Amino acid sequence: MYLWRSRVTVSPGFVALLTLFVLQGEGAAAAALLIAAAVHESGHLAALYRFGVPVSALRIGAFGARLETVGRGKLSYGRELCTVLSGPVVNVLCALALAWTAGRFSWPGGFLYAGAHLVLGGFNLLPIPPLDGGRALCLLLSWLLGPNTGEWLSTAVGSGALLLLSLTGAYVAVRSGGNVWLLVGITGLVGAFAREMGLVKRRRTG
What we know:
Blueprint: E1 7-10, H1 12-23, H2 27-50, E2 55-61, E3 64-69, H3 77-104, H4 108-124, H5 132-145, H6 147-175, H7 180-205
Parallel strand pairs: 1-2
Antiparallel strand pairs: 2-3
């Protein structure tokens, strides 16, 4: 009924991006990010399990993963916020634990894994749909102001945050000589935002 019985699919884009990491000699960083991503999704899964929400599928894409659920819309705003924020919170806790362990036991590699957790958790807290931070903002505003106003305001904030992030990222990429990973990340986030806005538009007109 839950993840161990669900269907897991991996997109070709994810395989291509992972291959690019390895070919660029970033295998260790890729491994650290994959572990952080697995822990992140486990945090979401644990919260969904706690609230009795079945998971029907796990979709792994080039720029993130999505747990497809049954009956999640019946959760209260408070419980839905818990499920959304559980992934980044687990990442931050793991980052602190790994950094302490690395410093305490002179384990240099531990800082790489701690950094991966911190980067992934912090990135997901940005107020940009479909990141966890964007979803959390929409839920909170909808809870306080109503769903229509909350969705409109969170979309406006997300659009502004994405524009600022894109301009900043492009500037840094140019100044650093064309950082390929930064450019790939920005492109992926813009595409994910556009897809999310398409889903929102279909929900409004449907």
